[in-house]
Amino acid sequence: MSLLPWKGKRNADTWDDDWPGSQMTRFRTEMDQLFENFFGRAFGAVEAGYGALTAWAPTLDVTETESGVTVRAEVPGIDPGDLEITVVGRTLTLAGEKKETAETKDENHFHSERRFGSFRRSVELPVPVNTEKVTAEHKNGVVLIQIPKDPTSIPKRIPVKSADK
Amino acid sequence: MATDIIDKPAATDVATTEHTRTGPMYRPDVDIIERPDELTVLADMPGVSADEIDINFENGVLTIHGKVEARQSDGSFLRQEYGVGDFHRTFNVSKAIDGTAISAEYADGVLTLHLPKVEAVKPHKIAVKAS
Fold it and tell me: What domain range is A89 assigned to?
């Protein structure tokens, strides 16, 4: 949603540092987030609780196999140490913060699309799981969480013996 | 659509390039930061490995392409929010950038491109001698 006209184009021949475009970009991003938060809250209530209320939250894929549940989350630019993954009962919570690196924070933003901030998402798992054996692996900005099912919730086929002989 | 890094577009028909690989393509979100001696481009490209990123600079057009491996469909999806597809984006780059000296690095799903400015546009401090 863009509410303010973007007039940040500048002449390539001038490299003045007090160009007002960067402040405008920041202001515009903040305005966009404000409106998205407001309208997301008012009209997107179905998704409430799944990160719709925060400015930014990672996207998730959840797959179920016979033995476990696999969750993939896109977390580009997040230090693995800033990720907090917890499983309580049947609820998986992924929390963390996408930090603007110190070197990019106060500089002249020519163009700004990436979003930063802290997030918390909780997902209800479809079956009881073994919370002791959850593993999480971070690679190339994607975190892969593997949650084995509780052994008692894995269907076990009982062979039927024939009694008549 | 190509994003202008510096306002004057160097080429107008960038977006019409056809791709041989089928499937969805994603436009990575980027931040472009201006520093005294270079422009830094940060692009969120999760799920790409560093050796699967192609960066090309030709006739003032910078193209970044990140190949994302298709995931095995192990089991059934309970929730599917992000699709899998290559990342692709083109930028028009002005002559104030030294195209031969562009460098890039990739860490934690973020591609960082360094676009150094040509000597002529870098700020120079002129010392004043006391006479």
Answer: 50-153
Q: What ipTM did this prediction achieve? A: 0.71
| Cβ atoms B68, B87 nearer than 8 A | yes
Is residue A97 within 8 Å of A118, Cβ to Cβ?
Answer: yes
- In CATH, what number is assigned to the domain containing residue A144? 2.60.40.790
Beta carbons of A60 and B80 less than 8 angstroms apart: no
> CA B106, CA B50: separation in Å to the nearest integer?
6
**Could you give the maximum distance between any two Cα atoms of chain B, in Å?**
81
Tell me if chain A has a CB within 8 Å of the CB of B121: yes
How many domains are contained in chain A?
1
Per-residue pLDDT of chain A (165 residues; tens, 9 = 90+): 445 444 444 433 334 444 455 566 667 767 766 666 555 444 433 344 444 444 678 889 899 888 889 999 999 989 888 899 999 988 999 999 888 875 566 667 777 888 888 889 999 998 899 988 999 999 999 999 999 998 887 778 888 998 886
Cross-chain Cβ contact B42/A104 below 8 Å: yes
Are A58 and A118 spatial neighbours (Cβ–Cβ below 8 Å)?
no
Domain assignment of residue A45, yes or no: no
Contact list, A123 vs chain B (CB under 8 Å): 79
3-state secondary structure of B38: strand
Q: Look at the domain B3-11+24-71+81-121 and name its fold.
A: Immunoglobulin-like (2.60.40)
Mean pLDDT throughout B7-18? Answer: 44
Q: Distance (Å, rounded) from C-alpha A37 to C-alpha B62?
A: 34
Mutate to test the interface with B, among A70, A113, A146 (most CBs of B within 10 A): A113
